[in-house]
Amino acid sequence: MAAWISSATGPMTTHFWGPMANWGLAGSGMYDAALKGPEIINERMAATQVLYSGLFVRFAWAVQPRNYILASCHTANVLAQSNQLRRWVSHKMESDPANAPAAIQTVGGALGAAGVLIAGSMLVRKPLQSALVNMQAGVLSKIAAHPAGPFYIHFWAPNFKWALSINNLMDYNRPTDQISLSMTSALTATGLIFMRWSFVITPVNYSLFFVNLALSTSSGYHLARKVKADFIDKK
Predict the structure, then answer these.
(1) Which residues contact 185 (CB under 8 A, 6 or more apart)?
(2) pLDDT tens for each residue of 59-102
(3) C-alpha dihedral, 65 to 71 to 77 to 83, nearest 10°
(4) Subcellular location, in the record's words (predicted)?
(5) How many angstroms separate the CA atoms of 104 and 107, rounded?
């Protein structure tokens, strides 16, 4: 026990608490599924989290020290958000049968397109990177060879997190009764903690810092709106 506590990914380090914060995402999905109605499900955010957490499972395996807690929490979140999407589809088909097929097709098409893009990128990654590095094209070749550059998961997993903030911005005026308190709390917390985590992993990841700054700010905005509506204005 003492060895684990003092280990590189033990509870005295950000390597432990950063990934643990992400359990909040999976936990909020499970909580909402168990206790909340499907009307609060944000289908775009749920679909985005499926892809985001899928990328972070790979990211958790690539960072040093390798982080099994991070991999497990994102695996759980893929399952939790997939279940939320299933609930949303069922609710949409029952409550709005006329418009449900188009809405479902939009979400499914976006997920499918992202999957194809990711698979295609994996196929061309090594030959394209080798070509750019061998060109000896100065800054371009240095970027291509950088361990946190665009040919590595260290770049794509953190930067895909921008999609979460973009979703928050698109929902800037979402009715507060359709906002999940647990989800916005989890997103805000993980953004704040991962701002610190970005400086203690190898390689140091500045893009991870800025994307989490955006996430904590945009999610905090919705969290403040929800708290104000449910706990201040109703008094």
Answers:
(1) 24, 28, 223
(2) 888 877 788 888 999 999 999 999 999 999 999 999 999 999 99
(3) 170
(4) Mitochondrion inner membrane
(5) 5
pLDDT for 8 beyond 80: no
Residue 156 half-sphere exposure, CB side, CA atoms within 13 Å? 20
Q: Which residues are 64's β-sheet partners? A: 202
Strand boundaries in 70-143, DSSP class E? none
* Cβ atoms of residues 59 and 52 within 8 Å: no
Residue 177 has what DSSP assignment? G
**Structure token pair of residue 37:** 């109605």
Average per-residue pLDDT in the chain? 89
pLDDT per residue over 138-195, tens digit each?
888 888 888 878 888 878 887 888 999 999 999 999 999 999 999 999 999 999 988 8
Mean pLDDT (whole number) for 215-219: 97
Spell out a b/e string for 33-47, using b for 16 or more CB atoms within 10 Å of the CB, else e: beebebebbbbbbbb
Tokens 């168990």 belong to 34
C-alpha separations of 131 from 87, 147, 226 in Å: 46, 16, 50
Distance separating the N- and C-terminal Cα atoms of the chain: 48
Q: Are 181 and 233 in contact (CB under 8 A)?
A: no
Q: What are phi and psi of 173, to 5 degrees?
A: -115, 25
